[in-house]
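Minutes, project check-in
Item: structure for the 381-residue chain
Input as provided by the requester:
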Amino acid sequence: MGSIKTSALLGLALPTAIMAANSEIYMDGSFNLHYPDGATQFDDMPDELREVVDEYWGQFPPQHPLIKDAFGILFGLLYIISFFGNGCVLFVFLTTKTLRTPTNYFVLNLAFSDLLMMTGQALPIFGGFVMGNDYWAWGPLGCKLYAVHGAIVGTSSIWTMVVIGFDRWNVIVKGFNGTKITAGKALGFISVCWIFAIGIEMLPFIGWGKYGLEGQLITCSYEYMEQTTNVQTFVMFTLFTNYILPIAIAIFFYSQIVMAVVNHEKALREQAKKMGVDSLRSGEQAEESAEMKIAKVAVTNVFMWIAIWTPYAGIVMLAVFGDRNKITPLMAQCPSMCAKAATCFNPIVFALSHPKYREALGKKFPCLVIKEEVRVAAPAA
């Protein structure tokens, strides 16, 4: 199929390209893919991949090679964004003494897991694109390792989000009555996130659940199309532990934070009104306002995560609980890729909204910070 893509990109109409025995597939000058009746996307797939793909995907015709190329290019772009974004977060937090606090260990872990996610998930797909492969290029074992890597790092990221929510709840809602987060406790929370993720996602290697190829047959993840009790119970388990439960806990924490912020602001306005002043904010309360801003950053990250991962969770739930025949290869592939894009948004949100991080970033990389122009009025003539 590589010759089809090369010639098509040069604007040449190909009369015919032999893809498999007794199967002729070609792309015309308008980039339309033509194939004979009965052709499927399994026809040219390496036989070794049969063990990691569900037969459901074999009912679909050959998928357009340029669509697969588009996914390869997008993964490459996402890796670049994630590398520089999360790299900046890690560098700035690790090299700025005032930012190396136990609370910010959670932010560091999130940036690290996001960078690890896109490194392990994007580079193999981009590499396959560069080599001209239209199917998963790294064999059955590589498929399983790719899938378990994404599952472990993704699970660690979402539970780190939950821990960040707990930390903000502990500071803002509990205040002086909250648990003091020391470096040891912070590292303990982080360790639990990773141990929990590894423990759950290694289960398919001991017989519960499976990992396999996804719709376009270029990426691997949970096997959710197979209609067996073993696979479906594992998928339901991971949906609960990696999606429903953490989201429910995060919503609890952040709803409590919002209520605390609203009540606090209301109390300040009422007190200011009694004293006949516009505002009571000064000194230590200005720092409290900064804490509220940090909480808003965390809230934004969590709800962006929910918005990004919900389509993928929806596809998985449709396969298990609904009519899986509605799921097409492209329909399955898009939410999976978009879910991984969450690794690119976290550093951008922190860069724009974290006051101390933005200040430190401006000192280390002045070119990345937009400085406001201060205009001085001209003296009167």
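Outcome recorded: DSSP finds ten helices and six strands in the chain.
No further action items on this chain.
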